[in-house]
Inverse folding.
């Protein structure tokens, strides 16, 4: 099934109105965002989402402004109502090898390829992808402007958080289920005490600079 255009309604919520205006010229609009550029551990995860024209999913906004329980509920609304959802992931060892920016763009490209359909345009949060052959619009703070980007930010955040909870079971000393790999005081103290584990980004300065106790 191909997305259809709906009549443009000026009373759409502003975050949905931007995408509806875009669909007046492009039938298949995909939003693209990532989660996990800043943490000291774990993967960077990207998501691509194609929403139907005319659809308003209650609560869709920047994932960082959504409480965890609500974010999970919205995640399932998006999965059930989107035309397509794609996810890409790049792990810490690759991040160390090619850097976080290149890893983010690689994850985003993987997410687009995972959609199962080719968008007419990509709406991306502050990044331009090379070698995808699709028209793009890079939007600063895109998750606050575009419903498709906001939906992608929620998908990426929930997927990554679930991955980090899984890593908590494997490396419980770091308490990844609480901080998801970000540089909280607790996390830094646990790295200082135990040293970095295999999913830590050893090229990141805060990990490199930690002085481990002798003996």
């Amino acid at each position: 099934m191909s997305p259809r255009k709906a009549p443009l309604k000026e009373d759409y919520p502003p975050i949905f109105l931007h995408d509806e205006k875009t669909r007046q010229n492009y039938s298949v609009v995909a939003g693209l965002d990532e989660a996990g550029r800043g943490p000291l551990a774990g993967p960077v995860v990207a998501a691509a989402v194609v929403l139907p024209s005319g659809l308003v999913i209650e609560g869709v906004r920047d994932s960082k402004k959504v409480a965890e329980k609500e974010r999970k509920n919205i995640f399932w609304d998006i999965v059930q109502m989107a035309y397509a959802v794609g996810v890409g992931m790049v792990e810490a060892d690759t991040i160390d090898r090619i850097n976080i920016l290149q890893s983010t763009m690689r994850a985003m490209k993987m997410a687009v390829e995972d959609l199962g359909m080719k968008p007419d345009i990509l709406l991306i949060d502050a990044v331009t992808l090379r070698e995808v052959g699709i028209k793009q619009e890079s939007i600063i703070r895109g998750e606050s402007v575009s419903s498709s980007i906001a939906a992608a930010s929620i998908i990426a955040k929930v997927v990554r958080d679930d991955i980090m909870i899984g890593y908590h079971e494997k490396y419980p000393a770091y308490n990844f289920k609480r901080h998801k790999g970000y540089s909280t005081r607790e996390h830094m103290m646990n790295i200082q005490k135990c040293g970095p584990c295999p999913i830590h980004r050893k090229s990141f300065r805060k990990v490199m600079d930690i002085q481990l106790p002798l003996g």
Q: What stands out?
A: The chain has eight helices and five strands.
